[in-house]
Design brief:
Two copies of one chain form a homodimer. By secondary structure, chain A is α/β, with parallel strands linked by helices. Chain A is built from nine helices and 18 strands. In chain A, 25% of the residues lie in helices and 28% in strands. In chain A, helix 6 crosses helix 8 and helix 8 packs parallel to helix 9. The two termini of chain A are 15 Å apart. At the A-B interface, helix 1, helix 2 and helix 3 of A face helix 1, helix 2 and helix 3 of B.
Amino acid sequence: MSEREITVLGTASQVPTRERNHHGLVLRWDDAMILFDPGEGTQRQMRHADITPSRLTHVLITHFHGDHCLGLPGVLQRMALDGTETPLEVCYPEEGQEHLDALLHLSPVEERVIIRPRPCAPGRVLDPPPFALEARRLDHGPPTLGWRLWEPDGRTLLPERLEAEGVHGPAVGDLQREGQVRVGGRTVRLEDVSVHRAGQSLAFVMDTRWCDAALELAQGVDVLICEATFLERHADLAQRYAHLTAAQAADLAREAGAASLVLTHFSQRYPDLRAIAAEARARFAPVTVARDLDRIPLPPRR
Amino acid sequence: MSEREITVLGTASQVPTRERNHHGLVLRWDDAMILFDPGEGTQRQMRHADITPSRLTHVLITHFHGDHCLGLPGVLQRMALDGTETPLEVCYPEEGQEHLDALLHLSPVEERVIIRPRPCAPGRVLDPPPFALEARRLDHGPPTLGWRLWEPDGRTLLPERLEAEGVHGPAVGDLQREGQVRVGGRTVRLEDVSVHRAGQSLAFVMDTRWCDAALELAQGVDVLICEATFLERHADLAQRYAHLTAAQAADLAREAGAASLVLTHFSQRYPDLRAIAAEARARFAPVTVARDLDRIPLPPRR
C-alpha cells in the first residue's frame, strides 16, 4: 500500500485571514489524489505544500459557496500548463451545474485536461478501485453533499500460515484472486491463511448544521474531517448560518464511533484555535485541529 | 489633495510562486480606489496589505486570462459581506462579456453591491471627476486593453499674489470656479495669481508585445506601470507568448517620456529579480521593481 495522507491547504471559513487561506484539502490515497473543496488560492497553497496539481485524480465539491470552489479554475489551469493524461473526476451536487459550468468557462483547458464532470445525487457515487464514494445531503443553505470514502474490507495474508500450507510464488496471487488454490493435491482456502482486515474509511462533513446524514457518513470511520466554524458560545450563529460548533463536531465523532477527528474551516473571529481544540477534546479524542500546510497521516488500519 | 499611492498585491505572471501572488494592484487616487487586474488570491492579499475591499470604487481588467481576473468574485463577496454603498465601476474589454458574466455568476452579490459593468472599446472610457480614463488595444492573445488614467491640468494658486491682489475669503473659491473675480472695483483673473500645474497621469500596460498603443498610453505619464514578464535573454519567449522584456519596458518608458517606471508581472523562472532591475536600469531611470505588498507613493506633481 502506498502512503495515505491528508495535506491541509487552507482552514478558513468564508473570509481568509493572515494565517489561514480559504479551505482546501488533499487526500493521497494510494495512486489517487483527491482535492476537497478548493477555495480561492488553492493553486498557490499547493505550491507551498509541494503538491503537484497534475497528479490530481479527483475533485470533490460539497457546495458552491465561493470559499469551497473558487480555486478550481486556477488548479485546472495549472494542470493544463504542466500537462496531464489522467482524467480528472469532478464530483459535485447536481443542482450546482450552472456554477460548475461558470467555473469551467473561466478555465478553458478542454484540450489539455480531460475533465469528467459527475453531477451527484445522494447515494453511491463511485465504486472501487481505488475507493468507494457515497454522498449524503447535508443541511446548509445551497444544495450540499457530504462524502464518505472507503475501501472494501480485505484479508491480510499470514506468512507463517502460507509457509505451513506450502503456498508460495505465483500460487499466492492465485489464492488472492480466486479465494482458494490447489497445492500438492490439497485445496488451501484464503481464510485458512489470512485474517480479516477492515478497509480504511474517511468522512468529509462540511458545511452543515447537525443532521442525521452527517452521523451516517461518519459511522465508524477511521477519520472524520469536519467543519468546526464556531465555538459553542456562538451556537446561535452556527445555527443561523447552518454550521457546526467544535463541540457538535466532537459529539458527531463520538456518536458515530469515529476513530479520529480532524477539525477545519474556522471563523476569522478565532485567531487563536486553542479554545476550539479544548472544546472538542473535552468530548472526544483524538482530535487534530488542522493548520494550513499540515500533513496528517491516516491512522494505521485497525 | 488626499494621498495618491500604489499598493502592490501580487507580481506573478501566470503561475504564483512562494514569494509572489498572482497579479493585483490598487491605486489610491483621492477618494477613488482602483483595483487593477485582480488575479486569484487578491482578497487575501488585500487583507495582508490592510486594504478594505468595501472602499473600492473601480476595477479595471485588461483581459480575461485567469491570472488577471480570477480574484474578482472573492473581492466582490468580501465587499458584500462588509457592506458598501458606493457603486463599483467595472471596466473590461467588451469582447470579454461572457467571462465577466461567469465571474459575476460566481459571486451573487447583486443585492448588496451595486456593480456597474462597463464594457469598453478603445477610446475615452471615463471623464473627470475623479479622473479621465482612456483605453487602447494592446497586442496580446485575447482582446486586451491598456489604460491611461489622468487628471486635467490645473492651476496652483500663489498665496503672495493673492495677497497682493487683495483676494481672500470666499473670493478665492469664486476665483477658482469662475476664472476671475471682482475685488475693490477691479477684475482679478486666475492666471494673474496662479501658475500652470500639470495633472498627474499614469499608464497601466499589460499584457502585450511592443506596440504603438502602449507607447501612446505611456506618453509623458508620471508613472508607467508595465509588465516585464521576461528578461531580454528570453526575448523569443516574450515574442511567442506576447509579453514584454524588462529591456522593452524600459525602452517604452524612455521613448514615451515617462517620468518613472514600475515593473511587475514576472515569470516564475526568475526567483531573484535583481537581473530584471539591472536590465531595465541600464536603459531608464527611475525604475521600481514591484514586490508583493510594496507601497509606492506617486511622485510629486511636476
